[in-house]
């Protein structure tokens, strides 16, 4: 899938508890996107959006980058079913302590299946399915995401080398494929809790996520 256009929609001042950022909104238009669920036809055109929180001088050296997929339940409600909110805070802590870096927040709720489908997947997980089985049972791929939008956004910022916070090899591959060198991978591991240990184990054992 490739984008017809990628547009920077807005760029504003953004003071936060982690320090001072610019907040930027981006939209990418994909014509004839592939469906992620054969029972749900894809629209003729899909618009993907992402927010970039940019701190400091990102051009002085390869900056720290976090590509974070939206998780309403974790990011907003502090869910302990997953590790998303801790990863988000860990990334903002790192950017804040270096005084520079970029958090790319992608609207890819539920690994791209959307919020309602993710909640249905949670129901199935309450009945014994793991996170992959639940997606498949609902007709979705295990992971519907691709990471072309963040790669294109970083390129549009003039970046050719970054330090990426992730345990997901697909994010590293996506940036390298787009011509952005990942000069360092920083671990996104958070300590497991009894409520998310099975979920984290499935990601490591069956989705190829790195342990540290
Ligand atoms: N479908 C589905 N999505 C989930 C579930 N738990 C969390 N998510 C979503 O998973 C996404 C986060 O993906 P992760 O696999 O934790 O991490 P990652 O972004 O692939 O990789 P890291 O960079 O290492 O964090 C977010 O969009 C969450 O909403 C679940 O059980 N089912
Ligand atoms: Zn989550």
TrEMBL record:
Catalytic activity line of the entry: GTP + 4 H2O = 2,5-diamino-6-hydroxy-4-(5-phosphoribosylamino)-pyrimidine + formate + 2 phosphate + 3 H(+)
Functional pathway: Cofactor biosynthesis; riboflavin biosynthesis; 5-amino-6-(D-ribitylamino)uracil from GTP: step 1/4
Domain of life: Bacteria
A Pfam family hit: GTP_cyclohydro2
Key word Zinc present: yes
Record domain GTP cyclohydrolase II: where: 9-186
GO-annotated biological processes: riboflavin biosynthetic process
MF-aspect GO terms: 3,4-dihydroxy-2-butanone-4-phosphate synthase activity; GTP binding; GTP cyclohydrolase II activity; zinc ion binding
Keyword Nucleus listed: no
Catalytic residues (positions): 143, 145
Cofactor note: Binds 1 zinc ion per subunit.
EC annotation from Swiss-Prot or TrEMBL: 3.5.4.25
Binding sites annotated in the UniProt record for Zn(2+): 71, 82, 84
GO CC terms of this entry: cytosol
Requisite cofactors: Zn(2+)
Binding residues annotated for GTP, in chain numbering: 66-70, 87, 109-111, 131, 166, 171
Keywords from the UniProt entry: GTP-binding, Hydrolase, Metal-binding, Nucleotide-binding, Riboflavin biosynthesis, Zinc
Function, in words: Catalyzes the conversion of GTP to 2,5-diamino-6-ribosylamino-4(3H)-pyrimidinone 5'-phosphate (DARP), formate and pyrophosphate.
Family, similarity comment: Belongs to the GTP cyclohydrolase II family.
Protein's name in the database: GTP cyclohydrolase-2
Species: Granulicella pectinivorans
């Amino acid at each position: 899938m490739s984008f017809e256009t990628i547009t920077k929609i807005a760029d504003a001042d953004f003071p936060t508890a982690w320090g001072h950022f610019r907040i930027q909104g981006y939209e990418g238009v994909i014509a004839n996107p592939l469906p992620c669920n054969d029972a749900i036809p894809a629209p003729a055109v899909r618009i993907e959006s992402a927010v970039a929180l940019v701190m400091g001088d990102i051009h002085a050296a390869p900056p720290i980058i976090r590509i974070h997929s939206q998780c309403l339940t974790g990011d907003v409600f502090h869910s302990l079913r997953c590790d998303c909110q801790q990863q988000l805070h860990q990334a903002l802590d790192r950017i804040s302590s270096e005084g520079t870096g970029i958090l790319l927040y992608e609207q890819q709720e539920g690994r791209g299946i959307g919020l309602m489908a993710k909640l249905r997947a949670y129901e199935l997980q309450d009945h014994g399915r793991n996170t992959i089985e639940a997606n498949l049972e609902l007709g979705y791929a295990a992971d519907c995401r691709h990471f072309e939008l963040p790669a294109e956004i970083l390129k549009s910022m003039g970046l050719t080398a970054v330090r990426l916070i992730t345990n997901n090899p697909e994010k590293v591959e996506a940036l390298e494929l787009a011509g952005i060198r990942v000069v360092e991978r920083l671990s996104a591991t958070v300590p497991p809790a009894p409520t998310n240990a099975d979920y984290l184990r499935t990601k490591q054992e069956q989705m190829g996520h790195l342990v540290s």
